[in-house]
Amino acid sequence: MTKTIRIAGFGGQGVMLLGQILAYSATIQGMNAIWVPTYGPETRGGTANCMVTISDTPIYSPVFKDSDDLIVLNEPSYQKFKHTVKSDGFMLFNESLIQIDENPKYQVKGVKANDLALSVGEPRAINFVLLGAYLKQNPIFDENTIMEALKYFFGSKKEHLIEVNKKAFNLGQTV
Q1: pTM above the 0.85 mark?
Q2: Which residue numbers delimit the Pyruvate/ketoisovalerate oxidoreductase catalytic domain (predicted)?
Q3: Helices and strands of the chain, counted as H and E runs
Q4: What residues does each domain of the chain span?
């Protein structure tokens, strides 16, 4: 099994963390993983995307052209990457910020991630709403693995944010 996932959005939306969580979750389960970040020249509000490859066999290249899956958080990223999903692939998009402008050749699911993140009291948790929805569709990792990865990346400095992100993740699992 090899899965390629592209995650794209604005800087500050948690794009990179989402990719790191997926890649680290794979390593927790003894799989191979590569995370490749790409930033625009801006710090916050600029473009950001990352490529994640997860495999139970060796991974020979860290980059790919077309992905199995696309998780897209904003309209400019949707416009840029909507044609880079394989025909049998899957796109999960933030329906709060994106209007689909065509019927793609792959499977699509929209989630009002901004609205759901606000409902748990943390507007920055849109990435975890989408992660929950993504893993419901593609159950490659369970909640315990994801939370273990989140604790690793947040450490003691951001430990207070783990519970709200867990709520956002669980809310994403319900849509």
Answers
A1: yes
A2: 11-172
A3: 6, 6
A4: 2-173
